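Entry:
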Amino acid sequence: MTTRQFVKIEKGLGPQGRIAVVRFERGDSVNALSQQAMRELRDVPRDFEDDLETSVVVLTGSAKVFCAGFDLKDPEGRARDKLSLGERRHQQRLGPKMCRAWQEMDQVTIAAIEGHCIGGGAALAVALDFRTCGRSAHFRIPEIELGMNMSWGSIPRMLALMGPARTKQAVILASDRIGAAEALEWGLVEKVVDDGQALAASMAFAERIARQPPIPVRMTKTTVNRLTYALDDLGAHMDADQNVLTGLTEDYVEGTSAFREKRKPVFKGR
């Protein structure tokens, strides 16, 4: 059995043991995506590739936070500034591979979200089939304010959920928090529940799905996803390279420095 530091998998839950819960917890109040955390989350879907018993997978964070996004303090991640272009491109593809792996799972996937869901955390959440969040949960897409583009193939997924105007608003107005009520109205989440109940509500929904015949459930998910994301590669294949490119700008240095220094950035378009 694979040993992981930040991710735990529990299978055999619910009706006929058809539900699994994946818990991503780093043991702090941030739950950020370090390189190691992303590798572990990327590899989780492999545990379900040959699993014909599990119909639904629920992904949750800690009791108070889903995910704060890419870990800007991760030494391995920060070392990318010293990498060659080829090495940067390779490292930058870890996030997109993680999200795509979750999107392409045969099982129906549900995100149970408490607290904040930011940047890469939101990118991961929109790669799943359904999202339930607590009333105090909020979403934010801070990448532009950090001087970079929103990548990981998430813009086409957000576009499918929210439409063009709301996607532009969510991504461009990087400082704006999207509260649970707004997220529901915009289509970013499908259900809002009392705080602390996101996992329980997700499990109840998962049980309804788990009672359905597994084979047509899988077929239906695959068909809907293929139709919805058929043209995604045309728009998303370059976003990793865009992220590398924006990472070479002065604005990226300013944005990330301002974040660490807890001040407002001043961008110059260079």
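The chain has one domain: 7-261.
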